[in-house]
Amino acid sequence: MIDLSALADAFGLLSSSWQPWLVVVPGLVIGLVFGCIPGLQTSMAMAIFLPATLSMDFLTAMLFLTAVFTGGQFGGGVSAILMNIPGTSSAVATTFDGFPMARQGRHNEALGVALMASTVGTVFGYVILLILIKPLSTAVLKLGPTEMFVVILWGLTLIAALKGSNMVRGLLSGVMGLLIGTLGMSPNGVLRGTMGSPYLIDGVPVIPAMIGMFAASELFGLVGKSYLVEAGTTVRGVSLARIAHGLRLALESPATLIRGGLIGTLIGAIPGVGSSVSNLVSYSETRRTSREPDSFGKGNPQGVAASESANSSSEGGSMVSLFALGIPGGGGTAVLLAAFTMHNITGGPRFLRDHADVVYAVILANLAQGALLLIVGLILIQFLAAIVKVPLRYLIPMVFVMATFGAFGLTGNLAGPMTVLAFAILGWAMRRYDYSIPAAVIGLLLGSMAEGELLRSIQISGGRFEYLLDRPITLVLLVLLVLSLWLPRVVGKIRARSLGPAPE
Amino acid sequence: MSDTHLRSRLDWGHLSLVLFFAGVTIAYLADAWTASSSLRNLVLLVPVSALSLVLCALVIVDLFRRAANAPDAPAEAAEAEATGEASTPLIERYRPAVLMALFALYILTLPWLGFDVGSAAFVAAALVLDGERRLWLIALVSIVFALATTMLFHWLLPYPMPTLVL
Predict the structure, then answer these.
(1) Cβ distance of A172 and B13 shorter than 8 Å
(2) Which residue of B has its CA nearest to A422?
(3) Which of A266, A292, A413, A444 suits A350 as a labelling partner, its CA being 20 to 30 A distant?
(4) Closest among A445, A35, A43 to A204, alpha carbons compared
(5) Could you write out the DSSP letters of every residue in A24-49?
(6) pLDDT tens-digit profile of A471-491?
(7) Which of B82, B107, B136 is the last residue of a domain?
(8) What is the per-residue pLDDT for A115?
């Protein structure tokens, strides 16, 4: 499974010079800061610092960029926990329990859990990549659009899981999100619903819309409140002891970390889906299999661990298609692919065969980065968590302004800030009448993806349903999807029957 | 049940939101249909739009049913009670709306005020709205923060950013 001679060469590459290692810590810091600032994406940090890698050799460049990647995956969780803003789209599920924990004054524990889960997730993803890169590279080739569509459907079933307190309204928010997510140029080149605006040709800018719905709409309601952390003044500070407690707390639920790691690596390996879906699937699976599903969304550390382990491990997964197929799985790997081109390297099976030592060196270096993240994260957490010490009165306008700048940075024009404004007002109205914001955001994220894969499925099958019978992986995925929806009910019923009537 | 009673108890805000959803769905579907009525263009849109309209109808029916079955207490008081706003002073209730208006003003005036002046003005106004009265602090926080953020993003972003002073 592992090419041992290439692995030995990889060790040689990494130990022959200390120079590649110099860029790892700065990379992690850049990733952490960018991930943490709402609106700035990890992939954007990688893109901005991509020209800086021109003077580096290929391995050093990969080490630097993957360090930014690794730092960013955790950085996104920091603002998700402290401000209820997913710093990156892969930290959406971290807000579900991370922010409630912060509001209960348990932000230190939440950050500790997130840091440990990110570290474990990163290491987990790369260990799996190390073992499976060769076999996986052949398997990924077999995934077609029908399989992808089922995976996205799986993500969409979250709408039902996150429906909030009213099912009809929850579904309606999800459906509206899905419709808005398909605005603009359709996968087969038809322009729809743009109202003549050139800004909408590429669809609604998803991240600004998410910032508006998740963050800004919430901030409108927070005005007049004193502190982000509502508990007593003694808990507002950063406490290393409590962060350490959070680190241990994450390790107490190894099943959650392993499940998150597996889901993250698997979904991360599928091009186009990646970490923005894996954290949601992992969260919902953890909640579904939990003995106390009702405690999720109210500050359950397992929710944070599930999301962070999955988004961090998907980095390792996304490297599969990059290395094996030369296909980027998402924004981050797209930048890595650009770095390949900058260094005159073409990804794909041939690259894997000819330069297995470089691939293994990148994997080994990332395992070390996982451990370094723990140290750099612990040092920087104090600085990052200082945000919660700022009285809310100062924080609210600052976050609005940062979100506006970030949205401008993402779109490069005023369409970003306008999107934040429109979705902030819509989100505020939806919150007021008990419509689930997460359901709408998931619909928005997956809308165009679902349509693209559905179309490709129809094209490839010629519209025949029998085609599915020839796709065993699709069928297995479909069965898993149905099981994941129905099994908890059946198990719940059996459990309730064996335990007698549950107390209300 | 007379029409006036029903009208006074109906949650008009919620009804407007659902009608907005239904309107967006119909307008989008009509636009997509005009653009191309091929199966490939509509394969996802038609089923999802139909589901959206059914859900909108369900919510509207529910709203009318609730209004018809509501107790005699005035709808406004019931709503205020439900949202926990009964005891809050008037200014507290309207703060979110004022902040929303300020934010809208900030975004819409960005092309003229630029990110530097616009952000400073927005931060200052939001601080005043949230009860801050120390002028020196308002000036310090708004100007320092707006300048620092504008300069940071100016350095980070590869494209020009509208500014007035910087």
Answers:
(1) no
(2) B104
(3) A266
(4) A445
(5) HHHHHHHHHHHHHSTT--HHHHHHHT
(6) 888 888 888 878 766 766 676
(7) B82
(8) 92
Question: Which residue from B24, B36, B56 is facing A190, i.e. has the nearest CB?
Answer: B36
Residues B36 and B52 in one domain: yes
State which of B63, B82, B101 marks the end of a domain: B82
Q: Judge if B15 and B78 occupy the same domain.
A: yes
User: What is the C-alpha to C-alpha distance for residues B33 and A280, in angstroms, rounded to an integer?
Assistant: 33
Q: How many CB atoms lie within 10 A of CB B132?
A: 16
Residue A184 Ramachandran class (φ > 0 left, ψ -120 to 50 alpha, else beta): left
The CA distance from A83 to A163, in Å, is 22
Determine contact, residues A359/A316, Cβ cutoff 8 Å: no
Same domain, residue pair B67 and B127: no
Tokens for B78? Answer: 């019931």
- Tokens representing A31? 């990733």
Identity at A7, one-letter amino acid code: L
Domain identity same for B76 and B111 = no
Q: Which residues of B102-127 are buried (b: 16+ CB within 10 A; e: fewer)?
A: bbeebbeebeebbbbbbbbbbbbbbb
Low-confidence ranges of chain A (pLDDT < 50): 227-235, 501-504
Output the CA torsion A266→A271→A274→A278 (10° steps).
-40
* Residues shown for chain B: 166
Domain shared by B8 and B65, yes or no: yes
Which range marks the domain in which residue B100 is found?
A: 90-156
pTM: 0.68
Q: Among A182, A417, A418, select the one facing B45 at the smallest CB separation.
A: A182
Is the model's pLDDT at B56 over the cut of 90? yes
Task: State pLDDT tens for residues A389-441.
Answer: 566 688 788 878 988 887 887 778 899 899 999 999 999 999 889 888 777 87
- Burial readout B55-85 (b: 16 or more C-beta within 10 A, e: otherwise): bbebbeeebeeebeebeeeebeebeeeeeee
Q: What confidence score (pLDDT) does residue A328 get?
A: 62
- For chain B, the domain total comes to 2
Average pLDDT on B42-49 reads: 92
With tokens 């991240």, the residue in question is A207
* Residue B163 included in any domain: no
The residue of chain A with its CA nearest to that of B84 is A432
Residue B165 lies in a domain: no
Indicate whether B156 pLDDT > 90. no
